[in-house]
Specification:
The protein is of the alpha+beta class. Helix content is about 30%, strand content about 35%.
């Protein structure tokens, strides 16, 4: 399994995205904020545009999947463990087109704490994380919702 140095800040996370997952750099992905429970990321529309001049569905999917991966990297560093995180599945619903900067937030679910203790005890665990895109024009409705299942396996010496 591929390991990387612990990701302890949003600056670390941003450079890790761009070096470990090159498509994130092509998308112009930025890490905006992290408060311990949710991670916000963004990308400019022009890098991710489709033939209808809205955000490409695949870019929305990628940004949402990367947001979940990223929050787990930050949480692993907080737990003082290292491991490999992969996405094991995901489902998505597109509610409305995005004609502006792509802004995505992933918030940890209530099950996170049980996942974390299971992971530390057993060396592997999985968790479903939800990421959502909200539009500046209508912040109360999600433009897209992604539920992704992530599997984490800790490095064991």
């Amino acid at each position: 399994t591929m390991s990387h140095p612990p990701i302890t800040s949003i600056e670390d996370l941003q450079s890790s995205y761009h070096s470990l997952i090159p498509i994130s750099a092509h998308m112009g992905m930025s890490v905006e904020a992290y408060d311990g429970r949710s991670l916000s990321v963004s990308a400019p529309l022009e890098n991710n545009i489709n033939h209808q001049l809205s955000a490409f569905g695949g870019s929305l999917f990628s940004l949402a999947a990367l947001a979940g991966w990223g929050i787990l990297q930050l949480k692993l560093a907080e737990l003082g463990v290292q491991g490999n995180t992969v996405i094991a599945g995901g489902d998505v619903s597109y509610q409305q087109p995005v004609f502006e900067t792509l802004r995505c937030r992933c918030t940890l679910p209530p099950e996170y704490d049980a996942f974390a203790s299971h992971l530390v005890q057993n060396g592997k665990a999985s968790l479903v994380l939800q990421s959502q895109f909200h539009l500046a024009s209508s912040p109360e409705t999600a433009a897209m919702t992604f539920n992704g299942k992530y599997a984490v396996r800790l490095d064991r010496d």
